[in-house]
Amino acid sequence: xxxLVESGGGLVKPGGSLRLSCAASGFTFSSYSMxxxxxxxxxxxxxxxxxxxSSGDIYYADSVKGRFTISRDNARNSLFLQMNSLxxxxxxxxxxxxxxxxxxxxxxxxxxxxxxxxxx
Amino acid sequence: AxxxxxxxxxxxxxxxxxxxxxxxxxxxxxxxxxxxxxxPGKAPKLLIYDASGLESGVPSRFSGSGSGTDFTLTISSLxxxxxASYYCQQFDSYPLTFGGGTKxxxx
Lengths: 120, 107
Known about the structure:
The complex is a heterodimer of chains A (120) and B (107). By secondary structure, chain A is an all-beta fold. Helices cover 0% and strands 51% of the residues of chain A. In chain A, strands 2, 4, 5, 6, 9, 10 and 11 form a seven-stranded mixed β-sheet that branches. Chain A has a four-stranded antiparallel β-sheet with strand order 1-3-8-7, with no helix packed on it. Chain A is globular, with a radius of gyration of 13 Å. Chain A starts with a strand and ends with a strand. The radius of gyration of chain B is 13 Å and the shape is globular. With 107 residues, chain B is mainly β. The chains are: A mainly beta (120), B mainly beta (107). The interface between A and B is medium-sized, with 20 and 26 residues.
């Protein structure tokens, strides 16, 4: 069974940084592209970033480009999102999600999410 | 970026009703569209892939259709567990984008 478990969320001041992690199990992590998707309170879903299986291809939403960095460690079956220069607009639940197959693709498995709150 | 416009943004329906949600893309995306269901406090769940493929384990009352710019999610007979929010997503090109969502409520 595929499992994705996010961690690292919390309360951070504007301008601060946070690093999210996603621990993956139940599938061959190194074979799939992975993604971060966020959802602001009471709002819809926003794709944040994607990384290919080998880390050779990385994509970001314009809203986070230059501030967020996605990375992965295939030996540890882990996905990361380094978030810098955080602002109130970054307050959201952050989900890691697994690609179904060849990127770009739909997301066939999601974690439970980790909440990030940016507030002074 | 490809914009996805979902309609309606919300609807009220009764158990047993046939429900249709539409998603329109700002440019052609072939069949690179997925539909997700999300219940309060939970992660989205994939229902439909490649515009019309039924994800494993998803009840057959859910179906998807369309290609190019116009897509539809249909629930043939609404069940109590189907009251939730539904989102379309395009994966034709980056940046990946989602529709604004449709909340299906009990009438």
